[in-house]
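Thread: quick sanity check before group meeting

JM: Hey all, I'm pulling together slides for Thursday and realized we never actually wrote out the predicted structure for the chain we discussed last week. Dropping the sequence here so it's in one place. If anyone has concerns about the input, flag it before I start.
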Amino acid sequence: MSAYQDLLAFARQTEALAQISGRLGWDQQTVMPRGANAQRSEEMAALEEVLHARRTDPRLGEWLDQAEAPDEAGAAILRELRRDYARNTKVPARLASELARITPLAQTAWEEARLAGNVSAFLPWLTQMIALRREEGQAIAGGGDPYDALMDDYEPQTSSDTVAATFDRMRPRLVALREAILGADTPPALTGHFAQEGQMRISRRLAEHFGYDFTRGRIDLAVHPFSSGSGDDVRITTRVAVEEPFNCLYSTIHEVGHAAYEQGVDAAYALTPIGRGVSMGVHESQSRIYENQLGRSRAFCGWLYGAMEQEFGALSVADADGFYAAANRVNTGYIRTEADEVQYNLHIMLRFDLERALIRGALEAGDLEEAWNTRFEADFGYPVDRPANGVLQDVHWSVGLFGYFPTYALGNIYAGCLYQTLRADLPDLDAQLSAGDTSAATGWLNARLQKFGALNGPRQTIANACGFDPDEGPLMDYLEAKFTELYKL
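JM (edit): ok, ran it. Output follows.
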């Protein structure tokens, strides 16, 4: 037990430092002065050197050899620590530090290039980031697939070949559904001017209705919405476009899904390797089920329609049914985060194929914009109009999150499975949602999934919650049923 206790104490300190590093990242994207970027880069690099030294400390290996788990949670902690130690000891300290140093600089360069529509200004930074991540992937893979090695950071126990096969099964049904919808009458969009202050008031109401604990979190504005932190300090961000309120409102609900997962993990696991979400795919299952199956449901849209009228007065849509149709409108567009449920996964498939080619060396940064534009037109049927709507729209590659994108689609798949079981267990769900009451649904998710953190692996976590092994079937059935009814197909 002495080895286990020493190991756990050391791991808790390391996790506390990692939380500080995450807070620096949150600060950079929300309130940090623009002129502080170069200094922040050095701060992040210095902190990463400390973290890498702790994560590769030889004492960890000795403790892991000697430690005996006292219980199920202890066994899971040892499992995660062994996995992390095996990975981290393969990454040179120089590489870890350089990645931390370049990330804030590359992100700022992306933000400026996106605003100016200047891809070439971002390319030197993207080239550096790809080279560093390739090196990291190769170091971890040890002769295997470097993309799989990077993807394992976000979705353990899943290979890119398995993801590709899943996408191949989904694509024909998604394309067929989209073509049927685009051939039908399109409902009117919600139009008008929706002041930032009003949108943020409703965002805070939504966060509270979905169970976000503001005593342990806060909401701010960012270029790209995100959630940050775990345990007792979990922060969310959103963004506002005064003529597109759904962007803000559903971004908020989405990030609350992530935050609720982190806030809902058993407090006994705090600052341990199992005191956080088990994978980004499982994480995304929470944000997507909050945003879509619950937040975009006909029942909840009825409540949100009333809240919007209360804040902004009469709306451009005639009634709650029109509001529901507008919130689920399928139409042409470029932005992944604004995409409807039918087309969202097609956006992910594009990014997955491109980033896998980048890490494997089959595509270079200088050719990425052309590859993106060609693929986008082939997949969606119209050309990209400007870089901010194309290759520059997402923050992920600027901060080196290669292997992250497929977890968005996996999250949708997991959410489909969870929702199928949740609806069976909560037969009066619609009545509750129509009153703006999500507590039964969010309570079910906490009891079935969130409180366990990373106690089990990703797929086992979903299987335990649902009662069956996850696959894409429930998601596709849900999409076809929902949009067939909505568009009268």
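AS: nice. The beta strands are 219-221, 227-230, 233-238. The chain has two domains: 2-151, 160-486.
JM: adding both to the slides.
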